[in-house]
């Protein structure tokens, strides 16, 4: 778990020092627009090499500073480690793990992985097919390291085909990219199906643990845009996508991009055959979105011995007290939680925790009588 953190030159934050002491979890209280999310973003950047919502480096580095610097001290299997991450306004990143430079954050992820959840990300997960797809892709990259390379190859070919579609002299020339896209797309969708199955099983168990009796028949539907898909058969999928790419070629030429493929797919979580987004309450959708993240943590813990950190940005703000307590109890049983909130009374949700107060970008220890 993360035991200490230093942050310098990041957004509007003053030099920030966090020391968890002997506590297992960390809480940060502060009014809106005082830097709570910026602290979480600095930690997220140190863990993943990118900001929330793909923020530009110029935005994350404090105005007038040559760089941002974040240092994390964390324990993993009773061994202490140090991570140093720096970022310049032109986007250059440097990662050092235990005084050794790293070429990729994947090297850090063998020891430490961090995820971020906020009310906004829960809403986006509910409302956006792109957000659901990207979340699955991100997790597949953690769960199966070869997936990230596979997706990168596909996206590179997709950009080349889209560039070809925009060219006025394309007509009459063969679509040399389609066969390669079909081959890679088939592997990508297979990997997604292989990951979704254990995720669903974890999700079902978690819903039962929270005694969510209204979610008694959960399932996942993988939606291939413009295609019929019931389960996954590699040969059938490849043939369908081949036919669909040819069929959509005139339209794709008009719009200038490829309109079918895994970059357009979606996942629907169902209960009793009904899509939760359409038929369940907002509260149930928020709880399921959080449980989806917990299921991911559980699978990662079972596969690799990395330490996991959950960055919670007031993610329970719209839930009732009973479900807030249940979810926090569940999360803290699996992972370290770093929780920020605008309500100081919420510190009772987080057991065995060290609390801080952020005001105008400055962080101080929150006294018990505050």
Structure description:
- A six-stranded antiparallel β-sheet has the order 2-1-4-5-6-7, with helices on one face.
- The chain contains eleven helices and 15 strands.
- The chain has helices at residues 36-48, 57-60, 106-109, 119-127, 129-143, 145-166, 178-209, 234-255, 276-279, 282-303, 321-332; strands spanning 2-8, 16-19, 25-29, 68-76, 79-87, 93-97, 100-102, 112-118, 218-223, 266-271, 274-275, 307-313, 336-341, 353-359, 362-365.
Sum up the structure in keywords:
single chain, 370 residues, Rossmann fold, Glutathione S-transferase Yfyf (Class Pi), Chain A, domain 2, 2 domains, six-stranded antiparallel sheet, globular
């Amino acid at each position: 778990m993360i035991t200490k953190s230093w942050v310098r030159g990041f957004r509007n934050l003053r030099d920030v020092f966090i020391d968890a002491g002997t506590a297992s979890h960390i809480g940060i209280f502060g009014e809106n627009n005082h830097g709570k999310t910026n602290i979480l973003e600095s930690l997220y950047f140190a863990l993943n090499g990118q900001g929330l919502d793909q923020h530009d480096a110029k935005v994350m580095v404090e105005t007038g500073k040559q760089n941002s610097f974040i240092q994390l001290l964390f324990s993993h299997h009773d061994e202490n480690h140090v991570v140093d991450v720096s970022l310049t306004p032109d986007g250059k990143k440097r990662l050092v793990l235990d005084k050794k430079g790293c070429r990729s954050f994947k090297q850090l992820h063998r020891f430490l992985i961090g995820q971020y959840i906020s009310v906004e990300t829960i809403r986006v997960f509910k409302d956006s097919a792109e957000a659901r797809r990207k979340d699955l892709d991100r997790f597949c990259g953690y769960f199966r390291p070869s997936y990230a390379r596979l997706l990168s190859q596909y996206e590179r070919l997709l950009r080349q085909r889209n560039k070809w579609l925009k060219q006025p002299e394309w007509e009459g020339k063969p679509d040399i990219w389609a066969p390669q896209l079909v081959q890679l797309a088939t592997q990508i969708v297979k990997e997604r199906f292989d990951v979704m199955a254990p995720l669903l099983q974890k999700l079902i168990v978690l819903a039962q643990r929270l005694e969510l009796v209204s979610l008694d028949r959960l399932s996942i539907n993988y939606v291939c845009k413009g295609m019929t898909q019931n389960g996954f058969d590699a040969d059938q999928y490849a043939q369908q996508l081949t036919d669909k790419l040819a069929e959509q070629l005139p339209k794709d030429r008009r719009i200038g991009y490829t309109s079918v493929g895994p970059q357009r797919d979606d996942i629907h979580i169902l209960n009793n055959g009904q899509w939760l987004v359409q038929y369940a309450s907002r509260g149930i959708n928020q709880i399921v979105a959080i449980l989806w993240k917990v299921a991911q943590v559980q699978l990662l813990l079972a596969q690799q011995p990395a330490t996991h950190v959950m960055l919670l940005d007031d993610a329970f703000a719209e839930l009732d007290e009973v479900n807030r307590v249940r979810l926090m109890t569940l999360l803290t049983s699996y992972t370290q939680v770093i929780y920020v909130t605008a309500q100081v009374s919420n510190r009772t949700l987080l057991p065995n925790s060290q609390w801080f107060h952020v005001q105008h970008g400055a962080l101080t220890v929150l006294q018990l009588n505050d």
